[in-house]
Amino acid sequence: MVCGVPRPDLLRGPCGYRGVTACQWRAVGFCGMGWSAEQTEAGTRGEPGGPGTDTAGAGTGTAGAGAGAAGAAEETAGPGAQAAGAGSGEGPRAPVALSPSRAGDFMQCPLLYRFRVIDRLPEKPSPAATRGTVVHAVLERLFDAPAAERTAAGARAMVPGEWEKLLAKRPELAGLFADATSDAASVDAGGSVAADGTAPAAPDGAAAERLATWLAEAEALVERWFTLEDPTRLEPADRELYVETELESGLRLRGIIDRVDVAPTGEVRIVDYKTGKAPRPQFAEGALFQMKFYALVMWRLRGVVPRRLQLVYLGSGDVVTYDPGEADLRGVERKLLALWEAIQRATATGDWRPRPTKLCGWCDHQAHCPEFGGTPPVYPLEVRPPDGAVVPQGRMEQI
Ligand code: SF4
């Protein structure tokens, strides 16, 4: 089959399109990328916070918790807009660029992509995603110290401080560990609950305990990294590197790479940290998609194909590597172009279909999702039916 799905009945499951003729991937071969039912299970298993939480933590640079939405601004504006995002007060805009996280969103569920990138609906921060952000911050800033001082004990000790810094930037994270029954409670960095959000009240024992457990989990992830890589022997060329390029087609690709190593020979290694577990080998292609995306961007920017892509899974203590070739990356470029065409088509027509999978359990937008009895917000952009006529905003349902 052209679409790469071996059996049309698979389309009823992960894809959400009820028949082959309705499948927008039929002509572009996206289902062959590994976003099958099995892949979504792997994503669930690999990251408690759901897929994208790792890349959200690192990939948005500023967000992390709830970064699926917070990072959405990267699709509609330049790097300066990354701190904005869902609920930022900016008006809806058509997407102008693609990042690995949002490409993954669209492949998972077009309606989820719409909610995050176009509607910018707010999302709740999660402890798992926030932990990923803190761990990424430690692994980035650890290299500020001289090589001999990059110890596991020192890195563990950085965790509470990085959490406090994140909390200072994003005070809304204070509620992560508050008692679910306490109204509008907030928790300071030490676990105290502030009833009015300004002055810490008496410490809430349960909240403090949850925070302590969460910090210990983050410290364990940081410590595990030392069993996988030796920072005393590494001098990264770049950390948290923002990259952006425009393909000949005009498609803009952007993202943030956790770490770039350059060997004395000039060979480049792209490294990404995952706080979840490694997927089973048969699902590795889906996990490598983000890395190949970055490799393509680096190739276009620097003219050299990165020698190695390396995924470091702190949750399971695995390191997955892949050495890409030019043919690989040209294939990724073709797939991204096809994906972008599908996104542009959906943007123009307003046809963003839900694609229910097991991952819906981590979706913050069930209340707006028809698959769960919800109604999406009025589509905020102009829509164009196939004849090209412009339909005023909010009238998509009349097409
Ligand atoms: S709940 Fe709806 S919008 Fe969210 S991922 Fe599932 S199908 Fe998509």
TrEMBL record:
It comes from the Bacteria. Gene3D superfamilies: 3.90.320.10. Residues 70-85 have a biased composition (Low complexity). This is Recombinase RecB. Residues 46-69 have a biased composition (Gly residues). Residues 40-100 are annotated as: Disordered. Residues 98-370 form the PD-(D/E)XK endonuclease-like domain. Keywords: ATP-binding, DNA damage, DNA repair, Helicase, Hydrolase, Nucleotide-binding. InterPro entries: PDDEXK-like_dom_sf, PDDEXK_AddAB-type, Restrct_endonuc-II-like. It comes from Streptomyces kronopolitis.
